[in-house]
Amino acid sequence: MKVLGVAHTSFTVSDLARSVAFYRDILGMELVTQFEGRGQIVETILGMPGAHLKTAFLKAGDHTLELIQYLHPKGKPYDRRTCDVGPCHMAFLVADINEAYKSLSAKGVHFKSAPQSSELEGATHWACYMTDPDGITLELIQ
Asked: Percent of the chain beyond pLDDT 70?
C-alpha cells in the first residue's frame, strides 16, 4: 500500500455555522459545500450507531478543510494543549505574516504570540499560532 496524497484535513467543531463564518469570512477560505448526514452509511463509516452530523468543506489553495458538527452523539470539549498527544493543527501560508497578524488580531482572533522568526537551513522563517472559535490551534507561516 502506498499513500497517493492527502484528500482533506478534518476538525470536529461545536457550531458549524460559527466555524464556517470564521474560516470563510475571517480567514478567507472558499466554502465549497455544506450538507447534513445520517443513516446507515454514515453510522457504518464512523462506527457510531445513531450518528447525525452537519458537514462543510472549505478550500484554501489546493487544500480542503472538512468541518463536522455532531448533532448526535454530542461531543464534549477537551484540553487541546499542543504538547498533549492527539491535538493537531493546520498551518496556513501567508505572504506577509505581520500584516495577517495585525488584520486578524483586529478581527478578534486570539493569538498565542506575535509572529516569531527562526533560522532554518540558512533561511529566515516566520510563524505564529492562533486559535479558531473552538480553541483549535492554527498556524500562520511566511
From this structure: 100
**Residue 45's pLDDT is what?**
87
Cell numbers for 109, please give them: 482572533
Residue 68 shares a structural domain with residue 93 = no
Give the CATH number of the domain where residue 22 resides: 3.10.180.10
Q: Yes or no: say if 67 and 115 are a contact pair by the CB < 8 Å rule.
A: no
Strand runs (DSSP E) across 16-87, as ranges?
30-38, 52-60, 63-72
Task: Assign 3-class secondary structure to 119-138.
Answer: EECCEEEEEEEEECCCCCEE
Residue 39: which residues within 8 A CB-CB, separation 6 or more?
none
**Per residue in 23-76, pLDDT tens?**
999 999 999 999 998 888 888 888 989 999 999 999 999 999 999 999 999 988
58 and 26 co-located in one domain: yes
Model pTM?
0.90
